[in-house]
Amino acid sequence: MALAVDTLDAPHPDGPGVPAEATSGHWFAIWTRSRHEQVVRNQLDRKQVEAFLPTITRWSRWKDRRKKIAWPLFPGYCFARFDPEDRLGILRCTGVVNIVSFDGDPAPIEPHEIDSIRRLVDTDLLYDPCPLIREGMMVEVVNGPLRGVVGRLVRKGAHARLVLSVNLIGQGVSVEVDAADIKAY
Questions:
Q1: 3-state helix, strand, coil in the chain (%, to 5)
Q2: Per-residue pLDDT averaged across 42-67, rounded?
Q3: Residue 176 domain boundaries
Q4: Residue after which a domain boundary falls, among 90, 121, 152
Q5: pLDDT over 70 for what percent of the chain?
Q6: I need a labelling partner for 130 at 20 to 30 A (CA). Which of 44, 76, 77, 177 fits?
Q7: What is the three-class DSSP state of 19?
Q8: Residues 6+ apart with CB under 8 A from 16
Q9: With bands split at pLDDT 50, 70 and 90, how would you rate the model's confidence at 8?
């Protein structure tokens, strides 16, 4: 669970490893090819672009052994802080598919969102990735006796509940579910 930002040579008042030019500009999400997150981060570091690749340590199993591996917390994405005018250099990195954009313009990420994730991965707390699921969304149960069941997520107090319905007759039933056992449908 280590912070996956390499230190760079240029000192900066915000801390070691942050070049002066990195504090200007916004954070952006870079969509990468499958399993190319680390490759992209390394190339951005070489170009002196501040990059952030949050990871989580997991056991990986092969036929003959098991090993702890640092997996990307958000598979398929790496984060970088840069001026949108310099995006061509980012897009030319091997493994970059695109920069997450709206209407053709790179979409900036709120600084507090990146800061929060950086603080989390720099602690010894246990954390797991989870999809962003909101109340009212259609979800599918992926674990347990209801695996494969689709319903609407609702809250009742502090508990997540899944509503299964028969729309034709306007009736439904709700059941408490563990949020870790569902995914967006």
A1: 20, 35, 40
A2: 93
A3: 138-184
A4: 121
A5: 83
A6: 44
A7: coil
A8: 7
A9: very low
Write out the two tokens for 179. 């949020």
CATH number of the domain to which 73 belongs: 3.30.70.940
Confidence of residue 144 (pLDDT cuts 50, 70, 90): confident
Lowest mean per-residue pLDDT among 42-46, 102-106, 158-162:
158-162
**Mean per-residue pLDDT over the chain, rounded:** 83
Helix (H) or strand (E) holding 41: helix 37-46
Spatial distance between the Cα atoms of 27 and 107, rounded to a whole number of angstroms: 9
Determine the pLDDT at residue 125: 83
Do 165 and 151 contact (CB within 8 A), yes or no?
yes
What's 11's DSSP letter? -
For residue 184, what pLDDT is reported?
Answer: 87
CA dist 83 and 26 (Å) reads 7
DSSP 95: T
Integer-rounded Cα Rg, in Å, for the chain is 20
State how many domains the chain has.
Answer: 2
How many CB atoms are located within 10 Å of the residue 95 CB? 19
Whether residue 115 sits in one domain with residue 30: yes
